[in-house]
């Protein structure tokens, strides 16, 4: 058993393009509303505070790890934020692994270990995902920004 993972990917909450854009537009709206308030009243000052708070929260979220994916020792290890449990997917029970699209929607919420309709989802950002089907028919959908390398590492581990 090797100690070195065949694949490691870290996905961060605040690095998705569309939510960053939304937060920056909100901050710009707060600054523009402050600029156009008359006589800089106390409520106008609140707009500046909210604008700076949005920017600071966006910066902090850029460093906030959502989950880490590792392919190691014929298994996939998914480790999430503080209180989430480690999820270990044994590759010996996987019958099919393929690359696909995570969702047909443009906007997707980040999820970790979401069980719905016979699937278990892990997603932070991007459009690509790896679809794993186990012997019981349960489908794991793991979003990845490096789906080709992730799939190659899974297939290499399954051959061992």
Protein described:
Helix content is 32%, strand content 34%. The protein is of the alpha+beta class and 160 residues long. It folds into 2 domains: 11-62; 66-159, Roll (PH-domain like), CATH 2.30.29. The strands form 2 sheets. A 5-stranded mixed sheet has the order 5-8-9-7-6, covered by helices on one side. Strand 3 (75-80) and strand 4 (87-90) form a beta hairpin. The radius of gyration is 20 Å and the shape is elongated. The termini are close together. The chain crosses the membrane at residues 12-34, 46-67. This is PH (Pleckstrin Homology) domain-containing protein.
**Secondary structure: helix percent:** 25-40%
Domain count: the total is 2
Rg (C-alpha, Å):
20 Å
CATH fold label of the largest domain: PH-domain like
Number of strands: 9
Shape assignment: elongated
> Are there runs of 5+ residues with pLDDT below 50, and where?
none
The main β sheet shows up as: 5 strands, mixed
What's the total helix number? 3
Helix and strand content put the structural class at alpha+beta
Strand order in the largest sheet = 5-8-9-7-6
Query: Kindly state the mean pLDDT as a whole number?
Result: 88
CATH class type of the largest domain = Mainly Beta
Question: What share of residues are in beta strands?
Answer: 25-35%
> What CATH architecture of the largest domain would you give?
Roll
Keywords: Membrane, Transmembrane, Transmembrane helix
Protein name: PH (Pleckstrin Homology) domain-containing protein
């Amino acid at each position: 058993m090797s100690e070195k993972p065949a694949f490691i990917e870290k996905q961060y909450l605040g690095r998705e393009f569309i939510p960053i854009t939304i937060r920056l537009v909100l901050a710009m709206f707060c600054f523009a509303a402050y600029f156009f308030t008359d006589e800089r009243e106390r409520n106008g000052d609140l707009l500046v505070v909210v604008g700076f708070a949005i920017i600071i929260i966006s910066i902090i979220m850029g460093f906030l790890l959502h989950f880490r994916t590792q392919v190691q020792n014929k298994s996939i290890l998914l480790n999430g934020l503080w209180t989430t449990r480690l999820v270990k997917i044994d590759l010996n029970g996987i019958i099919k692994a393929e690359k696909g699209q995570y969702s047909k929607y443009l906007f997707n919420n980040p999820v970790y270990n979401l069980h719905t309709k016979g699937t278990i989802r892990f997603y932070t950002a991007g459009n690509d995902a790896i679809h794993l089907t186990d012997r019981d028919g349960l489908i794991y959908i793991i979003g990845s920004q490096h789906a080709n390398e992730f799939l190659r590492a899974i297939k290499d581990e399954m051959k061992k």
